[in-house]
Amino acid sequence: MFDVVGVECDQLLCNAGKKRYPSLKYENLTLKTADVDRERVLNILCGQKGERSAIVSLHGCGDLQPDLLQWFTKLPKHRVPLLFTVGCCYHKMSCAGKPVMEWALSNALRSVCRNNWVLHKSALRLACQGQLSRWPSSKEERDAHCACFLRRALLECVYERSGINAVKRFPRHLNRSFRELQSVGIEIAERLKLDGEERAKMIREYRNTYLDHQYLFDTVEPFTMLQALMQMPLESLILTDRYLYLMESGCATYVLPLFDSKISPRNFCLVGCHTD
Predict the structure, then answer these.
(1) Are strands 82-88 and 268-274 parallel, antiparallel or unpaired?
(2) String of b and e for 31-54 (b: at least 16 CB within 10 Å)?
């Protein structure tokens, strides 16, 4: 028998979890703040006195995975011998966009970093996108992928030209499921319920944007293929750093693919085990 304790920094999500799974215990806990309650963190992660705990994180978003790794290396070995964590959303790290030296955990990576070497947020975001195994194989799938990419890219240009903040104003579904690439301007004007001059302006802006960038359309497939090829090296750098950090801390460490990456690209589990 074992007990499951859910740990979450957002009190609203803790409350929602209690309603959905009332048999589980939930702790509202923040791991990374200037005034973190170290004693409380240790007590929660170590579990009940006389028992042993494992830390399991299946979506270690942003700072969560590196924070858990650092806490794990400080916990009593006999109380918390195991860590299982799947990282995600590397671009949401608080140090994202800053020199690699500021987020690298291992001495091995830090020793080869130039002080000004930066992996930009776009690279960290690419590191947690789909792996090459998810690249569309048939011509029909590739054509659909390129069309989807172009629609989003052209709309971003239109929104920028029009002074529209699409992220804040529009639900995600408004920018999806269009029919023809050339008619997107008309469709988005209908979805936004524009009329008169606003409607005409949106349609005109889209048509002009389409014509201005049409010469680039054939570069979309090789460009997105290059992105897919870069994903694994970028994620490998991050995972290797975290793997080496645990190794340097005296832990037996493994990186295990949990399932087929076609199911989900976030399939690498970092396993740490305190050794005697």
Answers:
(1) antiparallel
(2) eeeeeeeeeebeeebbbeeeeebe
Q: Which residue has the tokens 């008619």?
A: 183
Instruction: Indicate the DSSP class of residue 34.
Output: T
Of 130, 186, 188, 124, give the one whose Cα is nearest residue 156. 188
One-character DSSP codes across 86-138: EEE-GGGSTTTTSBGGGT--SHHHHHH--TT-B--HHHHHHHTS--GGGS--S
Amino acid (one-letter) located at 195:
D
Q: Are 128 and 235 in contact (CB under 8 A)?
A: yes
User: Position of tokens 């992220």?
Assistant: 167
Answer yes or no: are the C-beta atoms of 176 and 147 closer than 8 Å. Answer: no
Rounded to whole angstroms, the Cα distance separating 94 from 175 reads 29
Sorted by sequence, the CB contacts under 8 Å of residue 271 that are 6+ apart come out as 82, 83, 84, 253, 254, 255, 256
Task: Please write the tens of the pLDDT for every residue from 59-105.
Answer: 889 999 999 999 999 888 888 899 999 999 999 999 888 999 999 99
- 55 near 85, Cβ under 8 Å? yes
Tens of pLDDT along 16-39?
Answer: 888 888 888 888 888 876 677 888
Strand partners, 7: 27
pLDDT > 80? residue 165: no
Amino acid at 211: L
Give the predicted TM-score (pTM) of the model. Answer: 0.82
